Structure formats: C-alpha cells, structure tokens
C-alpha cells in the first residue's frame, strides 16, 4: 500500500501556502533553539492569538467558559494551552503533545579551564548523539545564568552575524591513524567534547598564570556581569550556530537544528491557534526532557499537565477528582514526535514497506519501542481506524511507519506516559533525515500535512 506523494496533489495556491507556512516555521526554529526560548516564543504567539495566562485567571477568580483560551507555563521550560470546547471537560479533550528539547552539549557547573594558553568549557552531552558529529562545526552558546540576588541573565553568543562562534576541535587527519581505527562510538569520547572559547591573554605580571582564562572572565564580567562562581547556577548549552536554511535546489526541504521535535511542536501550536468553536476542548502541551526519559518537573512524567487540567476544571466550576480522572480517560491524543525518513544511502536498516518517506505526509507510528516493542504505547486498532477516517475525511496525506527494521534499533516518545492515564494515544509526526545530528532535514510538504492533520484532529476526534 504505497502512499502518494503529497506534492502531486497541490495546486499553485496550495504550494504557496506550504512554502509560506514553512517559512514561518523556519523563522521560529531559528529563534527558539532551547526550551526556554521555545516557551518564550510560544507565549508571544499565544497572547497574539488571544490566550490568557491561566495563573492570572486563577488569581483574579475569573470563571472560564466555552470559547475561552488559556495557557500555563511550567518553570519556563514547558507550556500547556487550552481552547475550551462546548462539551464538559469530563467528556474528554483532544490533545496534541510534543517535546521542545533537542540533543545538545550542556555546559558543566564547573566548566572553565585553561590548558596550554587555550581556554575551554567542559560539557556533558544531552540526549542521544553521535559525538563525532559535534566537532569542527560552529556552535552558539544559549541559556541563562541565575545570580544570588535573584536576577536571571539571558546569554546568547554566536547567532548574530557580528558575534563570534564557538566549537569543539577535531583531530587533524594527518595524526588520526589510531583514531580512525576506533568504533564510531569511541572516535570522540564524551569528555573530549570541550568547547574552545579563547586564546588571547589578559595583561598581567610576567609570572602570572592563566591569563587567557582571566581575559575570558573579564569579557564575561563586562558583557554579562557574571563571575566564574555563577556557572554553578547557570543553564548554558551549546547548539549549532546560525539559522535554519531552505534545503535542496527546489527549496522543498528545510535543514536546521531541532526538527526533533519542533517540526511537530510548532504545527501543533499553530493548529490550536487556528481552531475555532471546538466541540471538545483542544489542548497543546509542549514539554521538556523527552530526550532523557521525560523525567523531572518539566518532563511529561511530572504532574504539571494533570494539575493544570484540574485548575481548568475548577475555573469552569466543574471540578472533582472523579471528573478529572474521567476527563483524562475520555481524551484522545496525538503524541506528536518525529519518525525516521527512509534514506537510500542507508537502506539496509529500513524495511521499505513500513518506512516513512519524504513528501508522503504526516507519519503515524502505531507502536515505537525497541526490539520486541519494548517501551512502546501500541495504539489500538479501533483508535487507528478513527484517525484514518479523520485524515481521509479532511484530505490529509498520511503514511504509517516503524522506526527501522525489527532489531535494528528503536526509540520512544511521550505516548506511553499519557496512555498510563487510560487515554487513547498514537504517535504521529514528521519524517526526518539526519535525526539527532546538529543539522536535521524535513520536507515542507510533510510539515504542511502535519498542520492539516492536527487541525482536523482537534475538530473531529
């Protein structure tokens, strides 16, 4: 059952809409590279779309009703948005869930050191990465530094064209004979992913040591008013520098950092904004920490989502613990996460009949997991049939896939966590090439079909 290429179904007006939406997305991921930035940009868009801060609604004692739109932010790294529908929340919600964290290099708490008059920052990689991919490529520093006086300083270096960039050095090929004999996982060790940040010494006494480090600290003090000790309470990370770019001679694709999973989170967000007069309450939840197991206060395993649904029901004048449980169990969810695009360069790890392909639309994974479906949600046949009908009724191009051949590998999403609340959940998203590399690639057609799918789901599920 080969699926049609979506590009073949588009007229000139639709192609223009596809490219316009893709440009909006390209701009978004170029600005929102880490979770805090993604939440900040999402709040801006939400306010422009008429959403109110749920915490402000609670403080004001305001009552909510059908048609009202609210959002809540969790520790500046996760956000949930509600478009209240006509039916009672007890009847369930239609939920779009995605994650906004991506693989990267996190700066350690005691990172700065000088060695042979070079100054480096020590890192700890975050998420599943091929470590060698992060060498010899321009990186930008993003994050915040929290000071003891309670202030928080935003840090971004390497994005403005006038900024310097940073990076991890690689071993020259002339001396790499031993390195090239190593397994891919050992070509570059985790502790070798240190970022070079300076080489020019400050003025000092003849016998004074670590003058290059002193110069870097002087720069940090002058630009951000931070001391070395302030790294202890910082969240700083290295990500690929520069904006996402159109990819391909036909500009049909986008190359950029963080398609996993902003290529799903952004259309989920916009689909909710585009939805009006919903029967069931529409929800978009964007969470942190998926790449390391959805743990912690800002990951999907936290109680944040359940707590906010409880607060929403209370503001609607219809809260009880039993009704909250019913609301969750009666809900439908698309766990919006990316899938592996078939790559003819590496065809041996794919099973062609059950792979995702560029340009064939949004991807549904009935199950994910590894080996014997370990860690998978595995949606029910009835729910898959419901989703098929929604897509067909709304002329959404879609395809189904697995994550490579059986026993070739595997992966997980947030789907199983929401399924633990007894709701129907299926993984859906966009096919990605170079997944988890510093620069990933998606199809603009698939991005557009994801938006159409999410809009149809919120309307008809």
From TrEMBL:
InterPro entries: Peptidase_M18, Peptidase_M18_dom2
The keyword Metal-binding is assigned to this record: yes
A single GO cellular-component term on record: cytoplasm
Entries under Pfam families matching the protein: Peptidase_M18
GO MF assignments: aminopeptidase activity; metallopeptidase activity; zinc ion binding
Cofactors (names): Zn(2+)
EC nos: 3.4.11.-
BP term (GO), one: proteolysis
Keywords in alphabetical order: Aminopeptidase, Hydrolase, Metal-binding, Metalloprotease, Protease, Zinc
Family: Belongs to the peptidase M18 family.
NCBIfam families, sorted: PRK02256.1 (NF002600)
Protein's name according to its UniProt entry: M18 family aminopeptidase
Species assigned in the record: Lachnospira pectinoschiza
């Amino acid at each position: 059952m080969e699926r049609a290429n979506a590009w073949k179904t588009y007229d000139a007006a639709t192609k223009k809409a596809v490219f316009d939406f893709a440009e909006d997305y390209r701009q978004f991921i170029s600005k929102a590279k880490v979770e805090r930035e993604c939440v900040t940009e999402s709040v801006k868009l939400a306010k422009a779309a008429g959403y109110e801060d749920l915490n402000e609604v609670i403080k004001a004692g305001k009552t909510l009703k059908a048609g009202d739109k609210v959002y809540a932010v969790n520790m500046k790294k996760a956000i949930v948005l509600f478009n209240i529908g006509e039916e009672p929340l007890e009847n369930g919600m239609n939920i779009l869930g995605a994650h906004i964290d991506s693989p990267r290099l996190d700066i350690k708490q005691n990172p700065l050191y000088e060695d042979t008059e070079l100054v480096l920052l020590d890192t700890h990689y975050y998420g599943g990465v091929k470590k060698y991919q992060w060498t010899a490529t321009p990186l930008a520093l993003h994050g915040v530094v929290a000071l003891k006086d309670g202030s928080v300083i935003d840090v971004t270096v390497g994005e403005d064209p006038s900024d310097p960039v940073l990076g991890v050095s690689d071993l020259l090929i002339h001396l790499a004979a031993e390195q090239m004999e190593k397994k891919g996982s050992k070509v570059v060790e985790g502790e070798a992913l240190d970022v070079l940040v300076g080489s020019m010494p400050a003025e000092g006494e003849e016998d004074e040591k670590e003058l290059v480090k002193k110069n870097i600290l002087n720069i940090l003090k002058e630009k951000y008013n931070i001391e070395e000790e302030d790294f202890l309470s910082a969240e700083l990370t290295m990500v690929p520098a520069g904006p996402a770019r159109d990819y391909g001679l036909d500009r049909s694709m986008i190359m950029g950092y963080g398609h996993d999973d902003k290529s799903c989170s952004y259309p989920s967000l916009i689909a909710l904004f585009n939805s009006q007069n919903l029967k069931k309450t529409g929800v978009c939840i964007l969470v942190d920490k998926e790449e390391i197991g959805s743990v912690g206060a800002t990951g999907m395993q936290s109680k944040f989502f359940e707590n906010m649904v409880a607060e929403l029901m209370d503001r609607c004048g219809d809260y009880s613990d039993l009704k909250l449980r019913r609301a969750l169990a009666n809900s439908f969810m698309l766990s919006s996460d990316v899938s592996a695009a078939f790559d003819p360069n590496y065809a041996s790890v794919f099973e062609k009949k059950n792979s995702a392909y560029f340009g064939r639309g949004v991807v549904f994974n009935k199950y994910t997991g590894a080996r014997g479906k370990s860690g998978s949600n595995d949606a029910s046949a009835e729910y898959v049939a419901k989703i098929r009908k929604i897509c067909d009724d709304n002329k959404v191009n879609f395809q189904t896939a697995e994550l490579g051949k059986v026993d070739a590998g595997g992966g997980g999403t947030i789907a199983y966590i929401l399924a633990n609340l007894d709701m129907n959940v299926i993984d859906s998203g966009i096919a990605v090439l170079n997944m988890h590399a510093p620069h990933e690639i998606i199809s603009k057609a698939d991005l557009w079909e994801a938006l159409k799918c999410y809009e149809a789901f919120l309307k008809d599920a």
